[in-house]
Amino acid sequence: MKVLVVDDDQRIRDALEIGIQLQWQDAKVLTAADGETGLDVFFNEEPDIVLLDVTMPRMNGFEVLKAIRQVCSRRATTMSTRYAGWSWAPTTTSVSPSVTWR
Fold it and tell me: Which domain holds residue 54?
């Protein structure tokens, strides 16, 4: 199983990588520090699961998700944010993650 973690916070990427590897020893964890790099990794590595931060430089999580959904509508994706509510989220997007957690 390949898991792609896209988050601009190095501590979050490290924590998720460690947690995933502790839970599933055979998982290959791929990481990216921004949305554009995350898309490059996604298309090159074809991960089974994508974990996206919502707010990132260069390309936010909704933009990344939209690009992923254009080519692969059935990929498992999860979005996370440190913000308390989703009311600020773009309302023009027609995509949604498979799973959402805060």
Answer: 2-100
Type of residue numbered 70: Q
What pTM, to 2 d.p., does this model score?
0.78
Query: Distance (Å, rounded) from C-alpha 29 to C-alpha 4?
Result: 6
The number of domains in the chain is 1
What's the first-to-final CA gap in the chain, in angstroms? Answer: 24
pLDDT in tens, 26-75: 999 999 999 999 999 999 999 999 999 988 888 988 899 889 988 887 76
What's 47's domain CATH number? 3.40.50.2300
- Other Cβ atoms within 10 Å of 76 Cβ, number: 13
> Which tokens belong to 69?
């959904």
Alpha helix ranges (H) inside the chain: 10-23, 35-45, 61-71
- From the list 28, 52, 26, 27, the residue with the least C-alpha distance to 39 is 52
pLDDT tens digit string along 10-39? 999 999 999 999 999 999 999 999 999 999
